[in-house]
Amino acid sequence: MNALFHPIRIRSLVIPGNLFLAPVAGYTDRAFRSLCAEQGADFSFTELVSSEALVRGGVKTDALLRRGEEEQRYAVQLFGADPLVMYRAASLLLPYAPEAVDINCGCPVPKVVKAGAGSGLMRNPALLGRVVEAVLRASREFLAEVPVTVKLRSGWDASSLNYRECAEAAVQAGAALVSLHARTRAQGYEGRSDWSHIADLASRLEVPVVGSGDLFCPEDAEQMLRETGCAAVMFARGAMGNPFIFAQTRSLLCTGAYSAPLAVDRIRLGFRHLVMLASNLGEGVACREMRKQFCAYTKGMAGGAPLRNRLVHAETVAEYRALLQDYLEK
């Protein structure tokens, strides 16, 4: 089964495996990305970063951009619809030394789409191409020509599936990899993703295609790789509360089997996440952010619901530790 797990080449960048962590706003902070890298994620992406905020020197932007401690290879994901602003934003990434710069063309959030960015950019493939050209120019001038990649959706809605046109515009402009979340903007995160769109794109493009959508367990990843012929898979919601999914998937692809983590393993990893996040952002912010994260870490656990009801009121690391004491001391 090793043929399904293999290195990926993106221009001069060689990634040793094809199991990626997707950018997920509000979840893939640098602490979480570090834990996923520790558990076998071969490549990861920051949460989407506003090009406008970066150019203006937004105080919160630096925390989004920094590499995780265990993160050996990562991409900064930018969003915006103004080629000049995207150029300026990309030109400021040198201190962070990302291995790639990714352009978000898939976010369905109204405030992003309203500005013509995210999935709104797919409504204008020509502009999408100019944005790619601008970021690539910045990469050549300031970043030692690291690859520029794009993340798309299938289209705006079911009547405007234009992922082919957008992907071709991006690649012609210089994009070195295309990721496709096989849902439309109108779907958001509902319904089923249509993997046939991933297969179609993988058969058409000369650059690697990464598949995303409905990857909740190792078997899903194996099935997507087999059915679509995509070069890599990108876990999003399937990795939330379960960074172990990368090691599990690699084991399945390479040996045909894997073992599931115990509840205590997930809780301990979640607590490490909290401690790392507190170090990065401060205790108060980290404790508030981890309330939703622990909803994911405890999902499906016996006794998970009452534990979550208590955790959402925790305000300090000590309070989290006390509530999780039974797990942490086992």
Order of helices and strands: EEEHEEHHEHEHHEHEHEHEHHHHHH
Question: Rg, please?
Answer: 19 Å
Number of domains: 2
Residues in helix, % = 40-55%
Structural write-up:
With 330 residues, this protein is an alpha/beta fold. It folds into two domains: 2-255, TIM Barrel, CATH 3.20.20.70; 263-328, Non-ribosomal Peptide Synthetase Peptidyl Carrier Protein, Chain A, CATH 1.10.1200. Helix content is 44%, strand content 15%. It has 15 helices and eleven strands. The chain is globular, with a radius of gyration of 19 Å. The mean pLDDT is 95.
Task: State the gist of this model.
This protein is α/β, with parallel strands linked by helices and 330 residues long.
